[in-house]
Design goal:
Elements: H1 17-34, H2 40-52, H3 64-74
Length: about 80
């Protein structure tokens, strides 16, 4: 039986320095504690995957802050 290949698409995003530092720290902490470096792209990919499983309802959201609060509520803070 032949495996299906997973098709990915490139997404370009702009992050602030502190956001990049956070992703780098996660990756480096994993390397230090477990011997496996996790790249930024994999961390972002996993965050999207987790958020997609929350069934978050975005109806009525008008601001980024409202979206942030809704996301935090969906993942259980």
């Amino acid at each position: 039986m032949m495996k299906e290949s997973i098709k990915t698409q490139r997404v370009v995003t702009f992050l602030r320095r502190e956001e990049i530092d956070f992703l780098d720290k996660l990756g480096k902490d994993a390397l230090f504690y477990n011997g496996i470096k996790i790249p930024r792209t994999k961390i972002i990919q996993l965050m999207v995957d987790i958020l997609s499983k929350t069934n978050i309802d975005v109806r009525g959201i008008r601001t980024e802050q409202e979206l942030k609060e809704r996301i935090l509520g969906a993942i259980g803070r």
